[in-house]
Amino acid sequence: MSKDTTLPDNARHTPISMDGNPTIDERANHCFGCGPANPQGLHLHFTTDTSNPQAITATCHFQLDRMHEGPPGHIHGGIVAALLDEAMSKLNRPLNVLAMTRHMEIDYLRPVPLYKPLVLIGRHLSRPAKADGTPGRKFFHQGEIQLPDGTVLARSKGLFIAIDEKLLAAGLAQTET
Ligand SMILES: CCCCCCCC(=O)SCCNC(=O)CCNC(=O)[C@H](O)C(C)(C)COP(=O)(O)OP(=O)(O)OC[C@H]1O[C@@H](n2cnc3c(N)ncnc32)[C@H](O)[C@@H]1OP(=O)(O)O
Where is this region: Disordered (predicted)? Predict the structure, then answer.
C-alpha cells in the first residue's frame, strides 16, 4: 500500500523526508534533540572541540520555556535526560562512530530552571580496548547541564555501543560483528 504524501510531516508516522533511502544526516533532521526539521524538537546546536583527542567535548548554549515544564518553573526530568543523552551522543561523530545509547545514569543535583540561559556539555571519557587490544565498541561519555557560572545542575554517565550504519538505516539497530 502506497503512503499518502499529501499529508504534512507531523500527521504521518514516517515523515515524507524519510521515504526512500534517506541518509543518516537526513534522518537526523528530525532528531528530537537537534533536528532542524522537527517542529516539536529542542533544536539544540552543538560546537565540538577536538583539539585534545583524549578529551573531546560538545557544548550547547540553550534555554527552554514552559513547553518542557515539569516541576513549576523547571525543566521536566525526562527532558533533562534527553538533553544529557543528546550532549553525550554528539561526541560520537567526532569520534567517527555511529553509536546508540545502551545505558545511562543521571544525578539530578538541582532543579533545572526554565527561562534561564544554560550550558549543556558532553565529554568523552573512554573507549576501552577489546581483549586483543583492538579498539572496542563501547564508548563512555559524560554529560552535564550547568548554569553559566559553572554550577552543575545535572550530570550523566553514558555507555554508547557502536552499530552498523546499514542496520540502522534498515531500522534494525544491531551491533558490529
Ligand atoms: C545512531 C544515531 C542516533 C543517535 C541518537 C542519540 C542517542 C540515542 O538516544 S539512541 C536511542 C536510545 N537507545 C536505543 O534505542 C538503543 C537500544 N538498544 C539496542 O539497540 C542495543 O541494546 C544496542 C545496539 C545498543 C546494543 O546491542 P548489543 O550488542 O546486543 O548490546 P549488549 O550485548 O546488550 O551490550 C553491549 C555491551 O555493553 C555492556 N553493558 C550493558 N549494560 C551495561 C552497563 N550498565 N554498564 C556497563 N556495561 C554494560 C554489555 O555487557 C555488553 O558488553 P560485552 O560486549 O563486553 O558483552
Answer: 1-22
